[in-house]
Amino acid sequence: MAAGATGTKRESFRSSLIGRQLGVYFLLILLLFAGSGVAFYFADREQADARFWTEHTGEVLDQINALSLAMRGQESGLRGYLLAGSEDMLGALEAGSAAFDRGYRQLRYLVQDNPAQIQRLDRIADLRSRWEEQVVRVALADASQGDLVSARQPLTSGVGPRLLDDIYDGLGRMASTERSLLVQRQNRATLSRWRTRVVMMAASVMGLLVVLAALLMVRRRIVRPLNSVTDAMVAVSEGAHEYRVPHLNSRGEIGDNARALEHFRQTAMREEATGWVRARLGELTFHILHAESVDHLADTLLNALCPAIGAEYAAFYGSIRDNSEYRLAGAYGFPPDRARKGFARGEGLTGQAAQSGETRLLESVPKEYLKLGSGLGDASPAQLLIAPGLYGSEVPVVLELAGFQPFRTRHRSLIDALMPVVAIAYASLRARAKTEALLHETREQAEELRASEAEIRQSNDELVRRGKELAEQSEALQTSEEELRVQAEELQATNEELRQNSDELEAQQREISQAHDELARKASQLEQTSRYKSEFLANMSHELRTPLNSLLILSRSLAENRQGNLDADQTEAAETIHQSGRNLLELINDILDLSKVEAGKLRVEATAITVDGLVRSLRRNFDPLAGEKGLQFVVSVGEGLAPELHTDGARLEQILRNLLSNAFKFTAQGEVRLEIARPGSDLPLRSDTLDPEHSIAFAVQDQGIGIPADKRDRIFQAFEQVDASTSRVYGGTGLGLSISRHLATLLGGEIHLWSEEGRGSRFVLVVPRQMPGAQPAPNAPPTVAPEPREPLPQRRTPAPRPEAPDILIIEDDTAFARILEQEARRRGYDTRIANDGEAGLASATARPPTGILLDIGLPGMDGWAVLERLKQQPQTQDVPVHVISAADDDGRAAAMGAAGYLSKPVDVDALSGLLDSVGPGSAIKRVLVVDDDKAARQAIGELLGRQTLKIVYAEDGAKALATLAKQDFDCVLLDLNLPDMSGFDLLDRLSEKTGHAPVIVFSARELTDEETRRLRAHTDSIIIKGGRSSDRLLDEVNLFLHRIDDKTGAALPPIPSGGVELAGRRVLIVDDDMRNTFALSRILRERDMQVLMAQDGRKALDQLEANPDIDVVLMDIMMPVMDGYETMREIRKRPGLSGLPIIALTAKAMDGDRQKCLEAGANDYLPKPIDMDKLLSMMRAWI
User: Fold this and answer.
1) Domain membership flag for residue 1075
2) Other C-beta atoms within 10 Å of 338: how many?
3) Is 591 exposed, middle or buried (0-12, 13-18, 19+ CB in 10 A)?
4) Half-sphere exposure of residue 346, counting CA atoms within 13 Å on the CB side?
5) pLDDT of residue 1056
6) How, if at all, do strands 360-362 and 1164-1167 pair?
7) Would you state the pLDDT for residue 575?
8) Are 77 and 90 within 8 A, CB to CB?
9) How far apart, in Å, do the first and last CA atoms of the chain sit?
10) How much is the pLDDT for 16?
11) What pLDDT is attached to residue 788?
């Protein structure tokens, strides 16, 4: 088929009208240019020849003048010598003679083409020789005898002057001849230039006429048809799928493009229908999942479905009695008493659909079959649709629909996709109803059992009493045997009654056991249903996040208005779309959180957090909101409160954000107050595990609308609100308080509510200071050294690679030491292993490693002693040591200088994180803060104090320069307003030094364009102090400090925007969703990047093979043909691509996805919807 397609393309190319037309036009132009080129060539040759002989004549004249000057130099030197007797004049005579000889040789070479000039030159040379023989030598000879008068005689009279005149006369005639030649040659050059101009003008006019004719023909036969096809492309791309595509029957490329556009239009119409089905399916599924009963499910489904597909009539039938019969559960468009109440399986059209499990469409409905009416009249429907819902091999529900208009293809596709979901929901609701009934029955049986036990106890008491009577009667046995016999018979009857009661009790116990088994089975079914629900939510999360990703990216691009073609209203609209998309993303995350909570899969992790840090974080989030609404936000912390608590800080802050968000939302004026203190004695704690002395209470008090008494319990249920009417003033999903209550329970706490309608509300969150399961261990006893284990066998250790980081592993557990070694070598580290403390200390001292992994329970010298010695020795005190021990961390390791602590048993993620942190770049970073404001320095210190940083302060530029001269820093935070010099001057001084630390400008002054350009010459990280500047400052510092030396080959985290220029870089986007590729490519092209695209993994491999200069790959995970995981593995297998940066992009964002992507070969991971700032930062880092 591919060969056929190729043949079709070749045939189309051969028959191409555009190709033939353009070929003719270009051939004419090329022939014209070729003729002009030949004419230009010969004209240029003629001009070059004329120019050569003109320049040649000039050189001859120059040499004639040089000979004349040389001759005059000889004459002047001789005269000067004879008049003054100076030896210097004799030197001039010799220099003139040498110059004449050189000039003679050069002139003879130049005039070798002119025999007449050669004769004149030879005669001049002969005259000059005679002058030297008859004048110079004679004069010099007389001068050497001291007779200067006789020596001057030949020079001034006789033969001497005559020879000189003949020489100068010969040179003059040569010069006159050359000037005549120069005039002739200049005339020929002028004529040649004139002919060249004529040829150029003629060629230009003819070329212009030919080009104009070609352009007119191209415009009429090519441009106009292409413009019409282009207009159709624009219309179709803007959503006008009904636009008629012209030139469908044309030949050549225009017809091919028109037919391809028509195919695209048809495909777009199908994609639009598919998107409509997905959107409606999501809305209907949302209603289905929140149905509380079968009747509620039927009413909710029909009220939402019928308007969406244009159905005027609908009936919902649900199965009863093992799917053999169906009853009417809901109706739409007519009174339920007019509908058929039920039917048996296989009975009628509806029963046949239930039996076969296939959808039936009746297009010709008899007029008297069904009447759809209103207050003004009634009529028969155009079509009748009967759709069964399959659940495995069963059909629990059947849906019957009718309408005045025929059902469209998209409507039938929606119903086909929806019915399995309805069937699952119906089966789940029936199972839940049965479980509740069985539970009620079990409770009644338990009551009966307790009553039976009471009767048995009463019978036992009666038996005891009668036993006593029997004892009394036995004393009188001798006197009354008749009485004893009667009593024995009574006793036998009582025993028989007791045996019967015991049999009944055993039967009841068997029934209870069977009921428990049934409950377990139902619980298993509920667990399976919950699993289906979680899988459904995960899939729906992907389907919702995928289009939401494009929405957020494109709306962000429009809001930035980089091209400046949007007005203020359009920019504001784009910002509104972007914010609405983010709100929708938060809703999806809330629903997923709620699903995890209900499924018991949400995990909490206890860490030490400070109350002050929590308060600062909440103030950063809500102070701007309070200012916008004109409210006061008051935070008070009780006296004597412990400054720290041990709990999941992220979840605790999430609860408080939910409570404070509600408080601000429902408060129009006044204040919102957050009080942090110990729980009061008047607070009724429900949990027995909460101790007021070891707990902390967070009270959120508002002055809002309050909560009615009858709704105070309901608001903690999912999707419940105080005002749920369609005309409500306050928006929201009703998930926040439900999630908050579940999270509070996970943290070991609880939430209390006091409220008065119209007066405000008070929510109190009480959590233990130590989260259950996270209590700190008591002081660890002294570590007892274990018995020495079998050491690792001696083997050759590979020679350290040049510049590779070196890790020393001090561990006596052979198996665990090998695991650490393998993991470290897989990350490119060289390793050494020591089995005990003495050997490890000796190895570290002899050759200090890059990092050390240290066990505590070592034979001989334990880990604590090794750590102490390492930190005392100058050569090892700066080496980062990470402790791995089976004991809990009580803070002792950090106090002794350890860089980290990991408790055994160790999972893979924790081990990976530990090894990544041991390498280069893990040492404590140094930051210099240059600011003259003491309060600002303290604020920056508090902000950065939570990081592992060494912070040094300087209040002016001079101190900063002095500090930088003495110490090295990893980062400099600079304020521009300094007392002794400006920040610009300080940056200029720093730029004179090579290798200075990167600079982050953090200033309150507004910058002009010129100042910004001046700063950009030194740094790209410029932060203006404001409401969110502290967050950005923290991000920028982290990005600067976490760079790793390129020599290590280790991973680089994202760096700030000034790190690497992205302009001109080549990016491959691998994604099957055209919306995502369009949005991403548009954003990246706006930043002058070259973008290539592939719709699946196989095409991505082809692109990489065809374009080996690709700089980075953005890889989607869920794709047809070859998914992202398999594609990344294939890329890593290919030579030359093992180091290609790959960033994985996925919309599922479920637990474990990040680790799976990294294991498959990704360098980094980013969930959808994509945060473009994070993506660009990652790209800069990895490129």
Assistant:
1) yes
2) 10
3) buried
4) 1
5) 37
6) unpaired
7) 77
8) yes
9) 40
10) 58
11) 39
Contact predicate 82/234, CB 8 Å:
no
Reference 29, options 277, 263, 235, 214; nearest CA is 214
- Cα-based distances in Å from 967 to 603, 897, 921, 945, 952: 45, 22, 18, 20, 10
Output the pLDDT for position 674: 93
Count other C-beta atoms under 10 Å from residue 409's C-beta: 10
DSSP for residue 770: B
**Burial group, residue 111, by CB count within 10 angstroms (0-12, 13-18, 19+):** buried
Count of CB atoms situated within 10 Å of the CB of 382: 16
Q: Is cis: bond before 848, omega within 30 of 0? A: no
* Residue 426: closest CA among 388, 395, 397, 386: 397
> Do residues 162 and 192 share a domain?
yes
What share of residues in the chain are helix, strand, coil (percent, to 5)?
A: 55, 15, 30
Structural domain boundaries enclosing 1081: 1066-1182
pLDDT at 969: 79
Token digits of residue 1005: 């002054």
Clarify whether residues 49 and 178 are in a common domain: yes
Helix axes 957-966, 983-991, angle to 10 degrees: 30
Q: How far apart are CA 986 and CA 965, in angstroms?
A: 13
CA angle, corner 1152, sides to 1149 and 1157, nearest 5? 80
Q: How far apart are CA 416 and CA 418, in angstroms?
A: 6
For residues 742 and 859, membership in a common domain is answered with: no
Residues 1068, 1046 contacting (CB under 8 angstroms) = no
Closest CA to 861 of 784, 940, 945, 769: 784
Name residues whose C-beta falls within 8 Å of residue 17's C-beta, 6 or more positions apart in sequence: 221, 251, 252, 253, 254
1056 occurs within a structural domain: no
Q: From 635, 763, 761, select the one nearest 702 (Cα to Cα).
A: 761
Q: What pLDDT score was predicted for residue 1110? A: 93
Number of domains, the chain: 6
Q: Write the DSSP symbol of residue 92.
A: H
* Three-state secondary structure call for residue 386: strand
Q: Which residues contact 647 (CB under 8 A, 6 or more apart)?
A: 604, 606, 607, 609, 747, 767, 768, 769, 770, 771, 774
- Convert 518-552 to b/e letters by CB count within 10 Å (16 or more is b): beeebeebeeebbeebbeebeebbbebbbbbbbbb
Write the CB contacts of 876 (distance below 8 Å, at least 6 apart in sequence).
844, 845, 848, 870
Do 126 and 158 lie in one domain? The reply is: yes
Low-confidence ranges of the chain (pLDDT < 50): 1-15, 723-731, 774-803, 920-923, 994, 1026-1028, 1042-1059
Q: Cis peptide before 905, with omega less than 30 degrees from 0?
A: yes
Q: Who's near 1003: CB < 8 A, 6+ residues apart?
A: 974, 975, 976, 977, 983, 1023, 1024, 1025
Domain-located, residue 1114: yes
Backbone phi, psi, residue 1162, to 5°: -75, 145
Do 763 and 646 have their domain in common? yes
